[in-house]
Amino acid sequence: MTKVIIHGCNGKMGQVITGICKEDPDIEIVAGIDPYDDIVNTYPVYGDFYSCGAVADVVIDFSTAGAVDGVLEYCGKNRIPLVLCTTGLSEQQEDRVRDIAQKTAVLKSANMSLGINTLLELLQKAARVLAPAGFDIEIVEKHHNQKLDAPSGTALALADCMNEVLDETYAYQYDRSRQRKKRDKNEIGISAVRGGNIAGEHEVIFAGTDEVITFKHTANSKSIFARGAVEAAKFLNGRSAGLYDMADVIKGK
């Protein structure tokens, strides 16, 4: 049995995780952390970590970038493993994540779904072949109108995974409206669409001469991310300090 604290428990993702945990006999939510108390849960909810006395094996964070500092401090100080799902972190926060991973296990992923993490591997294979052959790379991501960060953390992860196998020689282009010039050969264009209740859609386009290859992942609900976070929490329970990702969960490392 893995006992967890949900940071951001009253948010949309927090509530989806709550529902999934109710049906999973191998995990138990012992407390939630959220400044808003307008939702009744079956577990106690505290406004911050300082007032929470619950003992947990793992913390799952689905909050906002502005609230991440609190969970990083708590998990680092108490050496509690952390599943960090919040995106849009600053460089300083990213540095803190790496520092805390030296004290406790931290699983950080821009996207918790099995499909996206399989896509990352496929894109690396495609980039190795197509980029040297002159194919341009573009990413288009779509999310609901309440999402705060743009581009999405997943879009950046897709770009990063390709850039990694291309020796980090590609720059990211987020907005073409400010410059009138031809597309640079060594760039990855990233466009963000916000509207309605789109759970998440990512499309990677390899555009060559007379042919186009497209990879696309569509999330039909938030539950795929929540289920991934729950599996990640169970995986992280008892792990040694270090920085993990969903690829480790998939491999059962």
Short descriptors:
12 strands; 253 residues; elongated; five-stranded mixed β-sheet; alpha/beta; seven-stranded parallel β-sheet; single chain
Could you walk me through the main structural features you see in this protein, from its secondary elements to its overall organization?
Helix 1 (12-22) crosses helix 6, helix 2 (68-78) runs parallel beside helix 3 and helix 4 packs parallel to helix 5. The longest helix is centred in the middle third of the chain and has 17 residues, at 114-130. By secondary structure, this protein is α/β, with parallel strands linked by helices. The model has no long low-confidence stretch (mean pLDDT 94). The protein has seven helices and twelve strands. 32% of the residues lie in helices and 25% in strands. Strand 1, helix 1 (12-22) and strand 2 (27-33) form a beta-alpha-beta unit.
Quick overview:
By secondary structure, this protein is an alpha/beta fold. Helix content is 32%, strand content 25%. Helix 1 links the parallel strand 1 and strand 2 (27-33).
Low-confidence stretches: none
Largest sheet: 7 strands, parallel
Distance between the termini: 19 Å
Count of helical stretches: 7
Helix/strand order, N-terminal first: EHEEEHEHEHEHEEEEHEH
Strand order, sheet with most strands: 3-2-1-4-5-6-12
Helix content: 25-40%
| Form type | elongated
Structural class: alpha/beta
β-strand percent reads 25-35%
Oligomer: single chain
> How many strand units?
12
The whole-number mean of residue pLDDT values reads 94
Instruction: Please tell me how large the radius of gyration is.
Output: 19 Å
